[in-house]
């Protein structure tokens, strides 16, 4: 189950979006979109470590790895042989 929010402000506390149990499903796909449906983050193999969302746009919407604005974002998490998990996450620096 994904956290409902995180604060990527560099204080080493909740600086990335944690998805509980994702490590047990390494062939996952994670996509995060803004309120207009534009992809701001997308990856495969999300793992709550080196491959996690830290509030950056990873080159999908903004140029380069720029911070996304504070706000509510929507996600789709796909895990093999399971129904996609959808919901929202709040970014607050």
Describe what you observe in this structure:
- By secondary structure, the chain is mainly beta.
- It has strands at 5-6, 29-33, 39-44, 71-78, 85-91.
- The chain has a single domain, classed as Immunoglobulin-like (Sandwich).
- Strands 1-5-4-2-3 form a five-stranded mixed beta sheet, with no helix packed on it.
- A hairpin with a 5-residue loop joins strand 2 and strand 3 (39-44).
- The chain starts with a strand and ends with a strand.
- The mean pLDDT is 93.
Distance between the termini: 22 Å
CATH fold node name: Immunoglobulin-like
Rg, rounded, reads 12 Å
* SS content category: mainly beta
What average pLDDT do the residues reach? 93
* Number of helices, counting only DSSP H or I runs of 4 residues or more: 0
* DSSP E strands, number: 5
Query: What is the architecture at the second tier of CATH?
Result: Sandwich
Q: How helix-rich are the residues, as a percent range?
A: under 10%
CATH class: Mainly Beta
Strand order of the largest sheet: 1-5-4-2-3
Domain count: the total is 1
Largest sheet entry: 5 strands, mixed
What letter string, H or E per element, gives the SSE order? EEEEE
Residue windows where pLDDT falls under 50 for at least 5 positions: none
């Amino acid at each position: 189950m994904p956290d409902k929010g995180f604060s990527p402000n560099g204080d080493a506390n909740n600086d990335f979006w944690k998805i509980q149990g994702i490590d047990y499903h390494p062939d996952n796909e994670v996509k995060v979109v803004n309120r207009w449906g534009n992809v701001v983050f997308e990856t495969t193999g999300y793992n709550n470590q080196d491959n996690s969302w830290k509030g950056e746009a990873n080159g999908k919407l903004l140029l380069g790895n720029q911070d996304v604005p504070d706000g509510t974002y929507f996600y789709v998490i796909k895990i093999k042989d399971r129904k996609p998990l959808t919901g929202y996450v709040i970014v607050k620096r």
